[in-house]
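Q: How would the structure tokens look for this protein?
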Amino acid sequence: MLTDVLGRPVRALLTAGSVHDRTPAEQVLADLRPACLVADRGYDARAWRAYLAARNTLAVIPAQRKRGDTAYTPARYGYDVNRYRQRNAIERTFAKLKQFRRFATRYDKRPECFFAWFQLGATLIWLKTVHMP
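A: Here is the predicted structure in token form.
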């Protein structure tokens, strides 16, 4: 199992490329009870916000810029900007993972092999951050 710098478990789930991130998110969060969930605009949906509210999880999700076909709708939901800024750590991690050519181009066709390379790349990134002098 992968862990972050503080030793907390990190969960990852491999899905098909055409599956939206929100689809397997409920499966990943099934037995977790986080105090807040930080996500990008793609997670801004009424059903997702209702699911999080039912679990007493604070949704730190900015509203989509455009709702409907033509009109700009201002944000209906507020969010904690300072907490949302911490999301860039995840984005930087994915940028570092994509430096591994095998991960970025998905040479491996079998999901087990691809996920193993993901775990290896994440471990190498973790070792660089922990053991840097």
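The first strand starts at residue 2 and ends at 3.

The two ends are 25 Å apart (CA to CA).

Upvote if useful.
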